[in-house]
Structure formats: structure tokens, C-alpha cells
Design a protein that fits this description.
7% of the residues lie in helices and 42% in strands. It is mainly beta. Strands 1, 13, 14, 15, 18 and 19 form a 6-stranded mixed beta sheet that branches. Strands 4, 6, 7, 8, 11 and 12 form a 6-stranded mixed beta sheet that branches. The longest helix has 13 residues, at 60-72. The chain is globular. The two termini are 30 Å apart. It binds copper (II) ion (CU). Copper (II) ion binds next to loops.
């Protein structure tokens, strides 16, 4: 079976293992408003700015808008193949198994035509997240868009089963951030795996510690015991994806600027239960993926 850490290793082509150490800060109780919307003090994060906001294109503001939008709606992103007039259309949803399976899709806009104009979101027009429905085999890739609007990329689909592909993007003139998802049926033997837990550390030179503090997630990266700053990657010091176990709702996570060595994110996890976290970060020019699963109480 393909383990989450090996999936990340295969993707990035590196041999350094990642250790995850848990803090005692998981399971922070959340207050709920009667209408089901999470209570949130106005301006609770007013002291923070997304790193992207400091960029010239100001696309960090889209992220914040997306966060507000997400908090205001009952249905989290990533559960629909079509939403707000936009539709994810895969050329094929039944695929063969293999290490480099071509995946082609387009994103149709409200006019029914393939979307051609995108806002930059974390330095890309589109982030494609692919994970098997048992939350193994996580991939965060950036595909290329042809002149007709079709996106294409090779996916690592060595394991059979049902995979979920998420397109995370910001259409020009549309929603600040949209995540559409489609299931891909991959032929081959299927052996269910467990949601990614703290990975063992065959090589302990890199250690990643993930702590959840309220809506914030703090990540500390160490190499040989020394805290290090991950290198800039996608306009931040890392990119975090949170998927809810059970339905693979895709929760938007936004980098926060902060003093100190930790990489901080605001992650609105709307309901109790387990969530799997996938942290992509770059050290020594190589992108690593650290995974863990937390329980929101
Ligand atoms: Cu991306």
C-alpha cells in the first residue's frame, strides 16, 4: 500500500523523511452559533495579513474573501463538481493505473465555455489537488493550460480505487476562490489505507511539528534539531491543504504573517471530527509533503 509519506516522497523525488510530532493543542473546543455558523469574534485575526496580500497583485485579498465566504456558507468547498455557474469537466473519469496517467479537464464558466481568464491564487492560476478517497496518495500539482482552456497533467495513480481531483482557482470576474471536485475511478486492485497519521521518521534529519491553536495552525520545521524557515514556495513558506474525513470537504487555509519561527495558517474547520492536513513546503530546493490527521472536538 502506498503510504502518504511515500506518496510525497515519490512526488518530490527526495529521500528525506518527515517526522510529525503532535502538540497538546489539538482538540480545541469550538463554539457554535444556533444557525450552525461558527462563532467568530469580529477582527479576531485583524492583526494578521496574508503574505500574499503584500504581493503586487494583492491576490491575498481574494483568499480572505474566500475565507469569509466559506465561513458564511453551510456547505464547505470541494464537494461539488459544479458551483456558482462554473463546472469541472474531466475528459475522462475512468482512468488506468500507473505512475504518469494523463488527466485532462477544463473549467467551464457561466457562459458554458472553457474558462480562459484566471486570477493568480498563491502564484498559480490553478492548484490541482488529487487524493484517493481513503486520503492516501496526496498530490498537489500545477498543470498547464492549452490555448483552448484545457488543462493537462500526468497524475501518479499507481493504486486503484476512487480518487478525488480538486481544482482550486479564482476565475476572473467570478468568485474570489472556488474549489470544484470530481471523482476519478482508477482501475486496479484496491486496498483501503488509513488516513495519514504522523509519519514515522526513518531519517530524522527533518521534523515537522503541527499544532492547532483555535482556527490557527502552527507548523514548525526542524532540520537536525534546529528550527529552520522553509524556503518561499507558492508565495508563502508553505501550502497547507485540509480535507475533512468522511466527505473530503476541502477547507481553505490561508497563510498568516507572523513573528517567530513557526509557519502559521488560518484554517477554518467547520465541524467536529477528523481532518487530514497536508503541508507542502520547500527545503533545499525540494518540495516535501508532511501529513497528519487531527480530531476537532
Ligand atoms: Cu498549488
Amino acid at each position: 500500500m502506498q503510504t502518504p509519506s511515500s506518496a510525497g516522497a515519490k512526488l518530490a523525488g527526495f529521500a528525506v523523511a518527515v517526522a510529525l510530532v503532535f502538540g497538546a493543542s489539538f482538540g480545541v473546543a469550538r463554539a457554535w452559533a444556533p444557525d450552525g455558523a461558527p462563532k467568530r469574534a469580529t477582527g479576531a485575526h485583524g492583526g494578521h495579513k496574508t503574505e500574499a496580500t503584500s504581493g503586487a497583485d494583492g491576490h491575498g485579498e481574494h483568499g480572505m474573501d474566500g475565507m469569509k465566504m466559506q465561513a458564511a456558507t453551510a456547505t464547505p468547498p470541494g464537494l461539488a463538481v459544479a458551483q456558482e455557474g462554473y463546472r469541472l469537466v474531466a475528459e475522462a473519469t475512468t482512468l488506468g493505473a500507473g505512475p504518469a496517467i494523463p488527466f485532462r479537464f477544463r473549467l467551464d464558466g457561466p457562459d458554458g465555455r472553457p474558462l480562459q481568464r484566471y486570477e493568480q491564487l498563491h502564484e498559480r492560476e490553478l492548484h490541482l489537488i488529487v487524493v484517493r478517497r481513503d486520503l492516501t496518495g496526496f498530490q498537489h500539482v500545477h498543470s498547464t493550460r492549452a490555448a483552448d482552456g484545457t488543462w493537462a497533467i500526468d497524475l501518479d495513480l499507481r493504486e486503484g480505487g476512487t480518487w478525488r481531483a480538486f481544482a482550486d482557482f479564482a476565475p476572473t470576474g467570478g468568485p474570489a476562490q472556488l474549489t470544484l471536485g470530481v471523482d476519478l475511478q482508477v482501475a486496479g486492485a484496491f486496498e483501503p489505507g488509513a488516513a495519514p497519521a504522523a509519519a514515522a521518521a526513518p531519517d530524522p534529519s527533518i521534523e515537522v511539528r503541527i499544532d492547532r491553536r483555535g482556527d490557527d495552525i502552527e507548523i514548525t520545521v526542524r532540520r537536525d534539531g534546529e528550527v529552520i524557515q522553509p524556503e518561499p514556495y507558492l508565495g508563502a513558506r508553505g501550502h497547507l491543504v485540509a480535507l475533512r474525513a468522511g466527505d473530503l470537504a476541502y477547507l481553505h487555509v490561508h497563510p498568516l504573517e507572523g513573528a517567530g519561527p513557526a509557519v502559521r495558517f488560518m484554517a477554518h474547520l467547520p465541524t467536529v471530527g477528523p481532518y487530514s492536513l497536508f503541508f507542502d513546503y520547500q527545503v533545499g530546493g525540494v518540495v516535501h509533503t508532511a501529513t497528519t490527521t487531527i480530531e476537532v472536538q
